[in-house]
Amino acid sequence: MKTNKAIMLTIAVAGMLNTQSIFAGDRTKCGDIEYENIYKHFVGTIGKDKVVIDLRWGYCGGSNNGGSFFYNSATKDFRYLMIQEPLSYAHNVQLKASEYRIDDNYYSQSHAEVPHWNFFIQGNKLTGTWRSADGKDTLAINLTEDYSNATPLEIMAYGQEIKKGKAKYSQDVHYSFIGVKPADDMKTRDAEFISNIMLQQANGTSVNAASWADYPKAQGRKDINTYKDNYKPDWPTKNVGYHKAYCHHSMFPMYNENGILVTEYTYYNDSSNGRSFRNIDVANKKILTTADILTPDKATLTTLLRNEYNNVKTPENIEKIPADNIVPTENIIITHNGIAFNYPQTSNCSSEVWVFLSYDQLKPILTQNFRDKMKI
Predict the structure, then answer these.
(1) How many domains are there within the chain?
(2) For residue range 300-314, what is the model confidence (pLDDT) as tens digits?
């Protein structure tokens, strides 16, 4: 894995993914500049609490397009870590970011309501200070880049634009991909297995991608050609002066510990968006399902899900889905402290509900193999 020069970051800590890209500074290239697109896995402490961060940032879409996740041993949830673009090309830059719970409304959070971090990355160390939202409490941040219990990954990115009309600030048709691939120093068999899962998750065969490494360009060819074939000069511009058509794809780890890699694939374009998850047992070369995690006791799981939903539901969630519709689903994410069950209410995932059950809640129906793997 590559190491980086010292980078100072300022992070605001708070709940939903903001997918608006930030393209800042004098930048003309994407994906080829050392240190500009990176993925690092850090383990350590903030104060006395164990912390794990899957940190991703870079020019191709900024980490506002996802890719950075954070989990703390003292909290049951895990969160998006939102890092904004630096204002320059410099390797030694200050970044700003926010951490959001996956089940909260991003727009309900105020910058003043959340904790903030200031830290440096130097070599394989991430150190700094955590400050509470009111500024009264501070904790030391001490993390080390560590893949002993995680899958080493690297960034891959690709973008393409074409100009068909007279867009003022950008091209009429824009395609971008940013995500991860197995690191070059991974075991060949593990790397091939993970790459094949990612290719399947992104439906790469539909664009004739020969491999995961080939997928970004293959998907780009399909998206760009589709837009070119259907382009109309009188298409309305979605944002004044910007793209008339765009499509973005990404693939990032949501959890990367205990030999389990949870991947999130997302796409969005000017008319739709979507998302899918895979829970990958790297050592045993399989995709984990609820049958691998839980005993076949559907009644108990249903009761646990509905009780938790009734405890945490909000008026907004009630409108999305009634409690009677909360049933066991395979749309799950394995996390450090429990299982997150996802209930999308529209095909493009613009409306969804999360129900989180901790391992303590699930203990009576956890399989022994899963307990052993997660050290429960």
Answers:
(1) 3
(2) 999 999 999 888 766
